[in-house]
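re: that chain from earlier
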Amino acid sequence: SMKVLRTMSNYYAKATSLSVAAKINANIALAGQPTQKSTGMVRYQVKRPDKYHIEFISDGEKGLSISNGRTATTYLTQPNQYTQKSVNQTTVFQQPMLGLLLNGALVAENPLNALSKDLTRATYVGVEKLDGVNYHHLKLFNSEGDVDLWIGGGKRPLVHKAIIDQSRGLAAAGHAGSVI
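^ sequence. v structure.
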């Protein structure tokens, strides 16, 4: 599993730019409440070392976040506000909206270190076919929850799919339930 993670991380670390479009499907199940389903779409464009453009739509809310390397500006339609924050090469990718890029790990200077930081265990599940293509399936464990990754092989070891279960993080915060 670490060999696949290392290969993927090296690929992302060498990339000078990155563009990702992702569908979001979340099931939020809190104890004593009906499960809430959340759907959306996010588009990331990142240019190293310190620029990004992120757009998202989730359950009717829309947002935009842009960094020119000195300032990160974020606009949210609900509650119809924007914020600006000074950033630098160290802090630019530590923005909440980068959470879907595995908490910014895929755009970190060293993706393997960023992914491994809170990792307690990693398991290689095996090769699985998605959409007719073989992918390496890995399961990562940390104190917040589990992350299942499907990573391509060959010269482009890109993350094709990620399932993030944050149930342990919720429990640590005093909530019973899960976010998947």
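The chain has a mean pLDDT of 80.
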